[in-house]
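User: Predict Iron-sulfur cluster assembly ATPase protein SufC's structure from this.
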Amino acid sequence: MNKGEVHATHGPRTGSGKSTLSKVLAGHPAYQVTAGTVKFEGKDLLDMDPEQRALEGIFLGFQYPVEIPGVNNAEFLRMAYNAKRVHNGEEELDPLDFDDLLVEKMKLVSMDPRYKDRALNDGFSGGEKKKNEILQMAVLQPKLGLLDETDSGLDIDALKAVASGINKLTSKDNALILITHYQRLLNYIEPDYVHVFSHGKIVKSGGKDLALEVESQGYDWVATAAK
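Assistant:
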C-alpha cells in the first residue's frame, strides 16, 4: 500500500481472513504469526508491541467497540493523543487546549459534544460507538487506518455520518483498509483497490468495479477461485 490509497477487502462473513489480517497488523495478542514479514515504512511491524505499532501510526477501528465504564471518553483520548505527541518529540497538550481540539474533531464526525464527558462507549448506541471510533482516528491521525466492518449495525443516517467523517480524514499522507461485506459503505467511500479474500488468501484484486461484481454475483464463485 502507498500513502493516499484506500483499499477495501471483501469476502464471506466468516473464515475468509479479513478481520484476522487487521488484528495481526494491529498486534492482537490472540494471534501468533508463524511465517512471513510485514514492513511498515521500512520497519518490521511484527517485531513491535501493539502499543508501539499504535505510536508508529497504526489504528484499528473495531467491529464491536468495547464499553469501558469509569473511563472518561475525553480523558482517554487526551492520554492517547499526548502519548503520541511525546513519542514524536512534542510537548503534551494541556486539558483546556485538548478540549478545544476535541470539540473541533467531534464537529468533523458530526458527534454531539456531550459524548466527550461520558464513559468510553458506555451506553452508546451502535452508531455513536462507530462515530467514536472515527473520532479516535480523527484525534490520533494514524498513517494507516484499519476499519473492521465499520458499517456493521448502522442505519442509513449513521452510515452516511460515519462515511462522511472517514472521507474527511483520508488524505495523501495516510492510507486506509476498509473491511466490509457489502457495497453500501463503498457507495459513500470510493476505494482505489478492492481485494476479495477466501480461506486466508486474496483470490482476486481489482478496482472499485470489483465490489459491484461481488454485490451482483455473491460469493459462490470465491470457493472456485480459491482452489
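The longest strand covers residues 193-198.
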